[in-house]
Amino acid sequence: xxxxxxxxxxxxxNIIGEHIDxxxxxxxxxxxxxxxxxYVKANGTNKINLSWTTTDFKVSLDINELEKYADLKxxxxxxxxxxIWKNAGHKLLGCDMLQDCKVPFxxxxxxxxxxxxxxxxxxxxxAGEKIDKKExxxxxxxxxxxYAKVNCGIMDQYASANGLKNHAILLDCKNITHEFVPFNLxxxxxxxxxxxxxxxxxxxxxxxxxxETEEALKILQPVLNVDCLAEISVEKxxxxxxxxxxxxxxxxxxxxxxxxxxxxxxxxxxxxNIELLGKLLNQSHASLRDEYEVTGKELDVxxxxxxxxxxxxxxxxxxxxxxxxxxxIVKKNKVAEFKKVVGEKYAREIGYDCSxxxxxxxxxxxxxxx
Length: 370
Ligand code: GLA
Description:
Structural class: alpha+beta
Shape: globular
Strand content: 15-25%
Mean pLDDT: 96
Bound molecules: alpha-D-galactopyranose
Order of helices and strands: EEEEHEHHHEEEHHHHHEEHEE
Number of helices: 10
């Protein structure tokens, strides 16, 4: 079949700043060259005809009845995005759409954000509308909340839309603004490893953590006069943490210290202090393991094996956790050895293999006229 455009959006890694986007924090993700590609052309009907490269399944959505597709196994996200696009006042056209997802599912590299963002950008493109990346990210986040029922922050969709080749994104999640920072690790490179743990309960545990941070804010807000947990300094938190119930205090402690680590990590990357960046990654993982409790045995074994490898400056889980990927800063000439040593250690302890991905830091939305 012929298509008019190829519209892509990226998966992402988060370098640091985990579980703080929904607390108004600054996070430090980067878009990946692993993308969801949407091949699209307007078809002059009131139908969105969907197909996928990964399955023979096909589905046809009526653009005037988009509410009724929420329970579809294939096509619910696309229907959701189209409905949200239309309800935001945009022009929605019938089209043929082929989806080609190269972001591994369930990897914590935001395949769903890439699908949502590229679908919305494809709808905008055929309607002849200007691409507003910030708006697309916000609409995609809405789709994730309503269709995947994850009460997520803005990080994934924003990075997927706004990424810039060879740059990390310092994203201020309170004001929804960003600054690009050249992604430069000198003699080192970022290695992405997937622990391949079968996913379970991620959504409910994620939403539970989010409510715990809201509870912490409810208690600290009247005392410290802040809008969000991310505004609380380490010193102020230490003075007041006794006001919080034990578990809630651990969650808030992670948020406050992680915000501080982001600040230090950005400075470290800007000044080329990759050793310090590595240490901050290790601290972040420890905090996600001990205070926020979102890692699990598989991610811990993988991160620890990496941290103990001579030639790796730091390693931590990336994304929501409970499975998915780690990122590690590894000396360029030792990457092959790293994969062998870490892979073998992981398989020995866990009983199945982890996988490694080759990916560059790439652009977010890209549009190609075919
Ligand atoms: C998921 C969410 C993001 C963010 C991360 C944790 O990827 O979609 O909004 O909260 O988890 O940092």
